[in-house]
Each structure stands twice: as structure tokens, then as C-alpha cells.
Amino acid sequence: MGVVKEIQEALAVLSVPEKAEFFPKFFKTGKGEYGEGDLFLGVKVPDQRSVAKEYYSKMSLPDIGRLISSPYHEHRLTALFILVSKFEKAKSANVKNDIIELYLDHLEYINNWDLVDSSCYKILGRYCFENQKEDLLRKLSDSEEMWHKRIAIVGTLYYIKKGSFELTKALVTQNLKHPHDLMHKANGWMLREMGQKNEKELISYLNLNYHEMPRTCLRYAIEKLDEDVRQDYLKGRI
Which 3 state secondary structure label does DSSP give 148? Predict the structure, then answer.
């Protein structure tokens, strides 16, 4: 595929057909049945983030594009980690624009929770925030493709990180009709960041509503509270 030899070796270990069925379990950054560093059938699962940080400068954008369009999940995920590193280290607006074009041209392959969450916030969300490109996220949110909506809302989490909640609220409200939890993470992030400004207000809200809150939303909302407080809410849901 035109990539450096070391990356080919790191990614090839799970590309044989008899292991293909295990891809969804493997690559969840430690949250699945297997994680990076674990042994499976005698093979060590590669740490994609380490690969990305080491080799991002050696790969061209066309090579990364070919990896993103690979049929293998771990190829796509590692390629997106590499793209994140490339975007974060880019020093010129032209390079960042090229990366965004590549990202948008490959949206059809960014159709998995891990792929969206590992790349969208740090690439597309940051780009749109820094360049006042809210219309790009709104356009994706208007798409009939559910993953485009997911990408748009996850992208707005960068806005939340910067203390701006309006765009996230607008896109979440617009998509509430969908039987899908794409808005739950965004809602949790909003509550979490608001709680950083006024923890008492967050606690008051949680005490009234946490039993009915989606688990994903609750998990993010309480993420920065003290451990004993977090455990109280989690135990209250069991």
C-alpha cells in the first residue's frame, strides 16, 4: 500500500481471514474483550497510538487515505490516529485544509463508534471551531446518514471544551427524534463542563434526574466529580 515497512508489519498481524471476525472486540482501546498489548493466538495486539505518534511524519496523505479505505478496522483506526497526529503537528493552514479534505472525502469509511470518537473531535471539531466553519457541521447534521450526524455532534464537543455550548444544543435538539444515543455523549459533556463552573448546580440536577439519564450521558456528566461521589451515582443505578 506504499506505507513504511514497520507499519505494514504492525498492522498485518490481524489481517488474516481467521482473525477478521475478532476485529470489533480487539480495537476498543482497552474497553473490549482484548486491548493493545494483549496476546491473541500468540500475537501481540499493536498499540495504534504509539504507531501513530512514531510514524505520522513518514506517511503521506495519499497513503493515509488508502489505509482509511482499507476493509480492516484496525487499519482505519491506526490511519485516523496518524491523521490526528499529523493535524496536531501541522504548521500551515494549507496542510490542515488538505487533511480536512481527506477526512471529508473518506466519511463513508468513518462509520464506527471508535473511528468517529477517536478522530472527529480532534480534527474536524477543532478545525471548524478555529476557522468559524459551523455551517460544515450543520450540513453534516442535516444528512440522512446517521454516522454523519454522529460526526457532526462529536465535532461540536470541541466547542464545549472551549466553553461554547450553543451549537451542540442546537444539533442535539435537532436530532432527538432519532432512536440513537448520538446525543447522549454530547449532553454528558455539556453537563460535565458546566459542572466545572458550578458543581453545586450539577449535583442538584443529578440528584433530580440521574435515575432517568442514559448511562452514557451520566458517565460523562460525573466524570470530573470526586471518586466517592461518582460511585454513589453509579451504585444508585444498579
Answer: helix
Beta strands in the chain (DSSP E): 39-40, 43-44
Cα 1 from Cα 124, distance rounded (Å) = 26
pTM of the full predicted structure?
A: 0.67
Tell me the CA distances in angstroms from 71 to 16, 43, 154, one per residue in order: 12, 20, 24
Contact call for residues 67 and 1 (beta carbons, < 8 A): yes
Give the pLDDT confidence of 167-205 residue by residue, as tens digits.
887 887 777 666 456 667 777 887 888 888 889 988 988
Tell me, rounded to whole angstroms, the distance of Cα 169 from its chain centroid: 19
C-alpha dist (Å) from residue 199 to 163, 192, 194: 15, 9, 8
Sign of CA dihedral 123, 129, 132, 134: positive
